[in-house]
Amino acid sequence: MLHLKSLIFAAALLTATSSGFAGDPQACKSVRLAEPGWNDLAFTTGVGLSLLKALGYEPESKLLGIDVIYTSLRSKDLDVFLGYWDPAMVAYYKPYREDGSVETVRTNLEGAKYTFAVPDYVWEAGVKDFSDLKPFSDKFEKKMYGIEPGSNQLMLDAIKDPDLGLADWEVVESSEQGMLSEVTRRVRDKAFIVFQGWAPHPMNTVFSMKYLTGGDKFYGPNFGAATVSTQVRKGYLQECPNVARLLNNLVFDVDFENRGMGYLMNDGLSPDEAGAKSIKEEPQRLEPWLAGVTTYDGQPGLAAVKAALGL
């Protein structure tokens, strides 16, 4: 009888193994992410893509404006956004937080900052605070340089503030790369420019630059000290618990992102290539990231990722 029971158990185990224990339901195999074209978010999204692919998922990332990202999360056309900057995106997120259509998973980066910046020679000339911009209006040509349309609301708020006297200034919106190209040109000519600066970003090592004080009203204290968080559409964490575990584990730091963004901007790698390269260089990050995480079909996640990345 014991032998018969053993045979029955073995047969049941074989059947279960062959049919597979999915780490997540079938509907979760495709993971839809988005990022707004900022190199820090392109890089962290690339890390997410690399991990998810190695775990047997089919992730894809779209390049969308901030407003479209949020409306797409609300309409369930997207699943994951790794780039909620607080406080820079508070106004964008507010209606989705209030109606519960977008949920914040966790903070994935601390130590970030986000506010107006100038080249060091402009700072040394006397532009050290938001209030110093107006006296130098002509040198700045009454322009400040932002990034993608839809991502510069705090700059727009600043020029509307009567205390700063910048009502006749223009916010030049283009893209992150377009803004940095303009900074490069102005720095080469030693011309005045004020632009949207932030860390983590290689701009902090490429340019000799300073962050302006006086922007607490718009960006918050300590030069716009910021955190970045992971967000998902409503219900996603419950629907896809294995991806949810990964998202709950996934954290970064400023130095890691600075290095990874350099692979995008200086070496021309794609986001997932930069993500994979960064993981291979620091494989010790995998164990905490993959704690309790399986592959899509229920196998140990850490071993699968290491195998996929040749570690």
Layout: helices, strands, pairs:
Blueprint: H1 2-19, E1 30-35, H2 39-54, E2 58-63, H3 66-74, E3 80-86, H4 90-99, E4 102-119, H5 120-124, H6 137-140, E5 143-145, H7 153-160, E6 170-172, H8 176-189, E7 195-199, H9 203-206, E8 209-211, H10 216-219, H11 221-224, E9 226-233, H12 236-239, H13 241-249, H14 254-265, H15 271-281, H16 286-289, H17 301-308
Parallel strand pairs: 1-2, 5-6
Antiparallel strand pairs: 3-9, 4-7, 4-8, 4-9
Please summarize what this structure is.
It holds the Pfam family OpuAC. The protein is an alpha/beta fold and 311 residues long. 46% of the residues lie in helices and 19% in strands.
Tell me what the structure shows.
This protein has 311 residues and is an alpha/beta fold. The chain has 2 domains: 26-112 and 226-308, 3-Layer(aba) Sandwich (D-Maltodextrin-Binding Protein, domain 2), CATH 3.40.190.10; 114-224, D-Maltodextrin-Binding Protein, domain 2, CATH 3.40.190. The chain contains 17 helices and 9 strands. The strands form 3 sheets. Strands 3, 4, 7, 8 and 9 form a 5-stranded antiparallel β-sheet that branches. A two-stranded parallel ribbon has the order 1-2. Strands 5-6 form a two-stranded parallel ribbon. Strand 1 (30-35), helix 2 (39-54) and strand 2 form a beta-alpha-beta unit. Helix 2 packs across helix 15 (271-281). The longest helix is centred in the N-terminal third of the chain and has 18 residues, at 2-19. The radius of gyration is 23 Å and the shape is globular.
